[in-house]
Write a structure and sequence with these properties.
Helices cover 20% and strands 31% of the residues. With 162 residues, it is an alpha+beta fold. It has one domain: 2-Layer Sandwich (60s Ribosomal Protein L30, Chain: A), CATH 3.30.1330.200. Helix 2 runs parallel beside helix 3. The N and C termini lie far apart (40 Å).
Length: 162
């Protein structure tokens, strides 16, 4: 039996994708984070690529389905909502977290947290609040990464850029 072609998806910043069939989902991350979700038993896998840590206050009161997946908090909650609707139990979902680099020069005297650092902190906090356990991660640094997620196997290939 010949191997069937696998669906290939390129995820742009601010996008979220959840698939029921095996797929390879790719993206490039700088200060953004990429979060993969996989439920092997149900055969679902997906990734989100949020760019900013938290939605503005006036958007937080909206239903998550109406909020933008450009924000880490909204993207995680939207993925959780979609997985819940498919019958996935959160403790059975394999989650992997990548990115959050400081790709732009940082003034060494500055005490302000960078966007990359805030994205990482927000992702870790919201994943915990939503009941997800992180199986693997590669966060921070000063260079971007290209990640390739196989939703059928859960494997993530990471290549550092620069």
């Amino acid at each position: 039996m010949a191997d069937q072609p696998v669906l290939e998806i390129y995820l742009q910043p601010g996008e979220l994708q959840l698939v029921a069939e095996p797929a390879v989902i790719r993206t490039v991350l700088g200060s953004c984070v990429g979060i993969t979700f996989r439920h092997g038993g149900l055969g679902f896998g997906g990734m989100c690529h949020p760019m900013l840590p938290t939605a503005p206050r006036h958007r937080r009161s909206l239903d998550t389905s109406e909020q933008s997946t450009r924000f880490v908090d909204c993207a995680i909650r939207e993925m959780a909502r979609r997985l819940d609707a498919l019958g996935a139990l959160r403790h059975q979902v394999e989650v992997k977290l990548f990115g959050g680099a400081d790709v732009l020069p940082v003034h060494h005297g500055s005490r302000r947290a960078t966007v990359g650092k805030l994205n990482c902190e927000t992702a870790l906090r919201v994943l915990g609040e939503e009941g997800f356990q992180i199986a693997a991660s590669s966060l921070g640094g000063t260079c971007g990464v290209h990640i390739q997620f196989n939703s059928g196997t859960g494997e993530v290939l990471l290549r550092r850029l620069g």
